[in-house]
Write a structure and sequence with these properties.
CATH class of the largest domain: Mainly Beta
Oligomer: single chain
CATH topology of the largest domain: outer membrane lipoprotein receptor (LolB), chain A
Number of helices: 10
Radius of gyration: 26 Å
Structural class: alpha+beta
Strand order of the largest sheet: 4-3-2-1-11-10-9-8-7-6-5
Length: about 475
């Protein structure tokens, strides 16, 4: 009897899925007809609005920092398929708050080209398939299913299909057969299975095609684009070519460059600067190792861990110091969770790191996902000292530092070395200092003065490309001062 019941349940589920998949076809067809999908081959549109930089907020409770798009244009070829974005952005946060290469002086041209082929990563393809017309094309070509959901007090017909990354892609269709929302999950090295949403409103008919005049994209819960369209051209000729030379986005099919090997420079007894990526300082205490910074991603962090174990065999990595929670400075923390290391950070970042480092990474399981260990995070206030009587690390919270409210620096008094992140990112040795100086650099120098630190060498996490030693004299010269005294 039990076997018959199981078979009956399986049969009902299979029938339900089949009907759902079958019912999706007329839903997709009706929406495609209402929106003019079949007649839309290409589109070009211009817009005004803002873009936002993922993971670069001034504190863990703020949205991603905003930049103003002085101009924005996009071309999409749905049949090729391909997309090209050209924009010029200017400073949007005044005064500057957060990361993302702030402050921008003048205009910053940017472009992105995606030409889909068999090797194009799925997140890049989504730039096309999450557009309303692109979504309906993709759903029609795949085994889509249909359901009903309520969101924001409205009832939607939801069409879903499974993307190449095995995550569901869901399109919300309203009672006018217009796609108002598309959502899915994509892998992020720090945020894990990260929500990716696109919201479409203010539809307007353009040559028989319904097109949204307001587009908002969100990643990680906050907007990354908010655009108001000013002009739409349907089926105009477009020629989207792979980028050539400098200034273009990398070809979609290009493989990620290999992680450079970690290289060590001895700067004191049991103290090493590890280069080859985001810079890390390793200090060997009597019975453990402390690392200052973790690296920008998992491959870099794994290389740093391997180098630390080579330098200090049989000593556990007890602590890793996180300067701040920006994604490029926290993206390497998860291997340390797997390692069992304690993360030291400012108390502003503690709850956020505990939450994010506990989020699932099922789309692309990493070392922490596989280890299934709970992150251990300790928060500090204005100062924390680590010492074993021989070696000392002093951690200080930077005040009035608008790049991040929870920024800390590490000072080694014996070696007179200061490790800092994003206060001073050195360019070429002969570069002309900006006028006026970056407010972040000015704040860093002011904090060194306030704390009365005797700094001789500055170790920027964003190490200079020529691998030169950065002195305190260089830093003060960069902001137009002779000394910090």
């Amino acid at each position: 009897m039990a076997t018959k019941s199981v078979l009956l349940i399986v049969g009902v589920l299979a029938l339900t899925w089949s009907l759902s998949a079958q019912d999706a076809k007329p839903i997709i067809a009706a929406a495609s007809k209402a929106m003019g999908v079949d007649r839309l081959k290409t589109v070009q549109y211009s817009a005004t609005g803002s873009d936002f930089v993922l993971g670069q907020a001034p504190n863990p409770s703020s949205p991603w920092p905003r930049f103003t798009n002085k101009s924005y244009s996009r071309s999409i070829d749905f049949e090729k398929p391909a997309s090209r974005v050209d924009r010029v952005r200017v400073q949007g946060e005044n005064p500057p708050r957060g990361g993302g290469q702030q402050p921008i002086v003048g205009e910053q041209p940017q472009n992105q080209t995606v030409i889909v082929d068999a090797t194009t990563p799925w997140p890049q393809q989504l730039e096309i398939w999450m557009m309303p017309h692109g979504f309906l094309r993709a759903a029609a070509a795949r085994s889509a299913t249909v359901s009903t959901k309520s969101a924001g007090g409205k009832k939607y017909t939801v069409v879903s299909f499974v993307g190449d990354n095995k995550a569901s892609v869901n399109g919300y269709i309203n009672d006018r057969n217009l796609v108002e929302r598309v959502e899915t999950l994509i892998d992020n090295q720090f945020l894990g299975d990260m929500p990716f949403e696109a919201l479409y409103s203010d539809y307007k008919e353009v040559n028989g095609v319904q097109f949204p005049m307001h587009i908002v994209q969100k990643q990680g819960g906050y907007p990354i684009f908010d655009l108001t369209l000013t002009d739409v051209k349907v089926n105009a000729p477009v020629a989207i070519q792979a980028p050539q030379g400098r200034g273009g986005a990398p070809a979609p099919a290009a493989a990620a460059p290999p992680t450079p090997p970690a290289q060590s420079e001895k700067v004191g007894e049991d103290v090493y600067v590890i280069t080859g990526g985001y810079t890390v300082i390793a200090v060997g205490f009597k019975d453990h190792v402390t690392l200052i910074e973790s690296g920008q991603n998992e491959p870099r962090a794994l290389a740093v861990i391997a180098e630390a174990k080579r330098l200090f065999p049989n000593k556990p990595i007890k602590y890793v110091v996180n300067t701040h929670s920006h994604i490029d400075h926290s993206g390497g923390l998860r291997p340390f969770v797997a390692e069992g290391s304690t993360i030291l950070t400012h108390q502003v970042n503690k709850a956020y790191l505990e939450k994010v480092l506990s989020q699932p990474h099922t789309l692309n399981p990493d070392t922490a996902q596989q280890a299934k260990k709970k992150p251990v995070v300790e928060g500090m206030g204005e100062k924390r000292v680590l010492t074993d009587g021989t070696h000392t690390i002093e951690l200080y919270h930077l005040q009035n530092f608008n790049h991040h409210d929870g920024m800390i620096v590490a000072y080694l008094p014996k070696e007179k070395i200061l490790l800092e992140a994003d206060g001073y990112n050195p360019g070429a040795a002969n570069a002309t200092p900006p006028n006026p100086p970056s407010p972040y650099t000015l704040s860093l120098v002011d904090n060194i003065q306030r704390l009365k630190l005797d700094v001789q060498r500055v170790v920027p996490v964003h190490y200079p490309a020529d691998n030169r030693v950065v002195t305190m004299a260089e830093l003060t010269k960069w902001v137009g001062r002779n000394s910090t005294n």
